[in-house]
Design goal:
Elements (H helix, E strand, L loop, with lengths): L13 H13 L6 H24 L1
Amino acid sequence: MATNMNRIMISVPADIEQEIEQLKKTRFYDKPYAEVYRTLLRMGLEKLAEEGEKEEK
């Protein structure tokens, strides 16, 4: 595991928290919450990058 990680704190609305709870139960049941959030952040960043590439064309 990487040792050069930074801690951050975020606040999320209740509806997003419920969606994350459901996702944790169905797809990440054996993973820590940190992994869920890292995966979601990574997916969001990739999606934004893809959208940026489409706009440049």
